[in-house]
Amino acid sequence: MDATKERPDFIPYPTNRVVGTVADATNAHAAINALLQAGFDRQDIDILHGDGDIQRLDPTGEKHGFLAQFQRTLLRLAGPAEEYTHLRHHVEDVRAGRFVLMVLARKRDERVRAADILGAHGAEFIGFYGRWAWEGLTPDAGLSPADPDRSDSVATRPEQIPSLFAEAWNRRDADSLASLFEDDAEFVNVTGLWWHDRASIRKAHAYGLERIFNASTLAIDETRAKQLADDVAVVHARMTLSGQTPIGKIKRPGTRTSVFSFVVRRVGERWLCASAHNTDVVPHMETNIVDDEGVFRTANYLKSHVS
User: Fold this and answer.
1) Which of 131, 143, 194, 284 is most buried when burial is the number of CB atoms within 10 A of its CB?
2) Residue 4 falls within a domain, yes or no?
3) Are both 105 and 191 inside the same structural domain?
4) Which of 15, 14, 7 is nearest to 49 (CA)?
5) In a domain, 180, yes or no
6) Within this chain, do residues 159 and 103 fall inside the same structural domain, yes or no?
7) Same domain, yes or no, for 185 and 206?
C-alpha cells in the first residue's frame, strides 16, 4: 500500500496537498492507482494508516521534540481556528482505522483532479491545505480552468457570488450552484425551507431546477457588497425570476422579485458562501398575516388592506 519513496517522521503541515479520508483498504489502493494513472508522482502521494502514522501527525508535537511542539502550538494558537481542528480530524480518522491520503497538488487543476479521483473512490472530508489556509473541496465542484462551463463558478470577489448563482441557475447546473457554498453552509428559501450543508443545497436546487423552475430565468437587478473584514463580506442582490413552471390552474406564473442575502468568506483564493437567505418582494405590502381561517396572507396596515 505504501505509495511513497520517503516518509517523513513528522508532518508539520501538509502544505499544497489535497487530503481526503477513505474508509477501506480496497478503495484506498484503487485511489492511489488512479492518481498514478492520472500523472501524479508516486513520491507526491502519501497514505496514513495505523499507529505509526498517528505518531507522524502527532497533534501535540510532544513526541518529536521542541520544534515540533512549537509548530503545533503556533498552529493551535496563531493560525486559523479551523486548521488545528482539521488536523485533529485526520488523527481521529487514522485512529479509527481509516486511510488518510495526501496528494501534492500545487496547481489548481491538479487540486481538482486529485479531489475528483479521491471522491470517485469514496473519500470524505476532502480539502486542500494552502499556506496556512484550508479549503474544502467537492469532487467535480467546478474549479478546473480547462472546463469553461464550470470555471465560471469560482468567485474571486464577494460581489460575484449572486451573478454566478444566477448563471448556474439559468444553466440548470445544480453542481456549479452548490460549489459556491461551503460544506456546512446554511440556506433559507422564500418559504422558510432550511438546508444545512452543501449536499442538501445541491439536492434541493437539483429538484427545483427540474420540476419548478425548468424553463425559468433568474436575472440580477442590483448587487450591493459590504466588507466586514478582510475575509468576510455580506452581499445583497435584488433578483427577478420569470418563467416559473405552471401548476394547477396557474398556466402562466407571473414574474417574481426577491432579495438574496449572502454571507461570504474568503477561503484560499476564492470566496464561498457560508449562509444564504432568499426573501420574496411583495409590492405594496408591509408584512404577512394569518387570517381567521388559518390562511397565510399579506397585509398593509397603513392602508388597512389584506391580500
Assistant:
1) 143
2) no
3) no
4) 7
5) yes
6) no
7) yes
Query: pLDDT category, 209, cuts 50, 70, 90?
Result: very high
Q: Which of 262, 274, 261, 85 is CA-nearest to residue 184?
A: 274
Q: Are residues 156 and 129 in the same domain?
A: no
Domain check: are 69 and 102 in the same one?
yes
Torsion of CA 247, 249, 253, 256, to 10 degrees: -90
Q: What confidence tens digit (pLDDT) does each residue in 151-207 have?
A: 446 888 899 999 999 988 998 999 989 999 998 999 999 989 999 999 999 999 999
Q: Assess if residue 246 is contained within a domain.
A: yes
Q: Identify which has the larger pLDDT, 270 or 296.
A: 270
Number of structural domains found in the chain: 2
φ/ψ of 243, rounded to 5, equals: 80, 25
Q: Give me the domain span that covers residue 114.
A: 17-136
- Residue that the C-alpha cell 404577512 belongs to: 288
- Annotate 51-76 with DSSP letters as a single string: HHHHHHH-SS-GGGHHHHHHHHHHHH
Residue 304, helix vs strand vs coil: coil
Q: CB 155: neighbour CB atoms within 10 A?
A: 23
C-alpha cell read off for 262: 449572502
Note whether 154 and 69 are same-domain residues: no
- Weakest mean pLDDT among 3-7, 56-60, 198-202, 213-217: 3-7
124 and 165 share a domain?
A: no
pLDDT bin (cut points 50, 70, 90) of residue 276 is very high
pLDDT in tens, 50-91: 776 666 654 444 443 434 343 444 444 444 444 556 677 777
C-alpha cell at 219: 436575472
Residues 59 and 181 in one domain: no
d(CA 298, CA 304): 11
